[in-house]
Design goal:
This protein has about 325 residues and is an alpha/beta fold. The chain has a domain of about 160 residues: Ribonuclease H-like superfamily/Ribonuclease H (Nucleotidyltransferase, domain 5, 2-Layer Sandwich), CATH 3.30.420.10. About 40% of the residues lie in helices and about 15% in strands. It contains twelve helices and eight strands. A hairpin with a 4-residue loop joins strand 5 and strand 6. The longest helix is centred in the C-terminal third of the chain and has 24 residues. The mean pLDDT is about 85.
Length: about 325
């Protein structure tokens, strides 16, 4: 078979791990015969069988060798255009689109506490329904009325850093409220003493008062030269991300923006390694990939003032059958 390749065999034998059943989360399973170069397993709780790759980003991938090389391009060269990747790997545009999102969706959400001294940056992107089939000119009326400059139609992304770690998350669309902060970045700054931010945000100000930490305006120059250099580098990095999304990618659908935020963090931190054990063994990837539309719908209806427009949807057979923790999804 075409996917009998040393890299793929090593991936299954040395990297992919089986600790729990991807269907029900049980730790009680047994080996259930061989499957090519690996083993098939059977869960003693739900009686379903699975492979080490079930639920991961490589799940249901037939062209595994091309996928392996595709992932390494994403790691080393960044987000090349879909057309470039199609020509490079002789795949269809939809396949290239799916592979990219499966890979960046396997990056786990970062909810680590960043420490006492944190710097933040607010990035605003136009609310976008790019690529949503079955919807005719979704933003034409907004553009015609000149409302795209209105904050109501802005996707609010917050980037945070403590000089060692970088976090970037989609907070909401429109005005940022206290509950948006508590839902997204609260764990990262819950015990922070000083948070420097590039602009005044009402919800963030409320959160600072509630948690009793200092909110510092980064537009004012610090007496510490090292802090000024770090602040400038951090600002440049965020503006580079904005250029990537707006100029190079020609905009990204708000539905997928959290995934690109996660990728931006790991790529620029040089931590994106798609076949490292920590990433490839994320068994929730397939479930999240097939349920993205459902999570996006909940996000739009519950946490923004936007209207949800249902597109022509691709259907999946096993979307709701995998075990996963919903709070790990990057919204």
């Amino acid at each position: 078979m075409k996917h009998f390749n040393k890299n793929i065999i090593d991936l299954y034998r040395k990297v992919l791990q089986v600790k729990t059943c991807p269907w029900c989360g049980s730790e009680h399973f047994i080996k259930h015969a061989k499957y090519h170069y690996t083993y098939r397993y059977k869960c003693k709780s739900c009686n379903r069988t699975f492979l080490p790759s079930t639920g991961t980003c490589i799940h249901y991938i037939h062209k595994k060798v091309q996928f392996y090389d595709y992932a390494n391009v994403l790691k080393n060269e960044g987000l090349l255009s879909l057309s470039t990747m199609c020509k490079k790997f002789d795949i269809a545009p939809l396949t290239s689109f799916d592979w990219r999102h499966k890979l960046i969706m396997s990056i786990p959400r970062n909810d680590k506490f960043l420490g006492n001294e944190v710097i933040g940056y607010n990035l605003q992107f136009n609310f976008s329904r790019k690529g949503r089939k079955g919807i005719l000119n979704p933003l034409s009326s907004i553009k015609a009325k000149g409302l795209l400059t209105d904050e109501k139609y802005k996707s609010q992304v917050f980037s945070l850093s403590n000089s060692k770690e970088l976090v970037s998350k989609l907070v909401t669309v429109g005005e940022v409220k206290l509950q948006d902060i508590e839902r997204t970045i609260a764990k990262n700054i819950c015990l922070t003493k000083n948070l420097s931010f590039n602009q005044e945000i009402h919800g963030l100000t409320e959160f600072a008062k509630k948690k009793r930490f200092n909110l510092i305006d980064t537009t004012k120059k610090s007496l510490d030269n090292k802090k000024n250099i770090f602040k400038n580098n951090f600002s440049s990095l965020n503006l580079e991300f904005k250029v990537l999304i707006n100029k190079i990618k020609k905009g990204v659908a708000t539905k997928y923006l959290p995934l690109y935020c996660n990728y931006f963090v790991t790529f620029y931190s040089k931590k994106f390694s798609p076949f490292a054990k920590k990433i490839i063994n994320q068994k929730f990837t397939w479930a999240f990939y097939t349920l993205t539309e459902q999570f996006y719908k909940e996000f739009i209806l519950n946490y923004t003032e936007m209207n949800y427009a249902k597109p022509t949807k691709r259907k999946w057979k096993t979307s709701n059958k995998y075990y996963f923790k919903k709070e790990m999804f990057p919204y």
